[in-house]
Structures are given as structure tokens and as C-alpha cells.
Amino acid sequence: MKWKTLKCDNSGPNCPEIAEADGMVYLRDSERPEDIVSFTPEAFETLKQKIRDGEV
Questions:
Q1: pLDDT at site 9
Q2: Which of 10, 16, 30, 51 gives the lowest tally of CB atoms within 10 Å of its CB?
Q3: Which string of DSSP letters, residue by residue, matches 7-44?
Q4: In sequence order, what are the beta bridge partners of 36?
């Protein structure tokens, strides 16, 4: 998978990374790349909206 770093506040060396493959969205922490969470695109959009709304 091709991982890209999401925008980060530069408060430390670890930032979220995202990849898309096989119709899924994958997230991981750059400090713990072996731990990967997968989402359907719809579930990822819901997560993003909840973060923007301050729910998570």
C-alpha cells in the first residue's frame, strides 16, 4: 500500500497515515505502523464528520 501522512500539528514525530486500496480506507500511526484500522469509504466519511463536529 502507498501510505501518505495526514496533516499534523507537528507536536511530535508520530502522525496519522492513510492509504486506499481494494475499495477500503486504511489508517495507521507512523509510530506503530503494524497496527492498521480499515474502514469502508462511507464509514471513513462518517468518522471524519464526527471528528469535525467534535463528537470524537
A1: 64
A2: 10
A3: P--SSSS--EEEEEETTEEEEEETTEEEEEEEE-HHHH
A4: 28
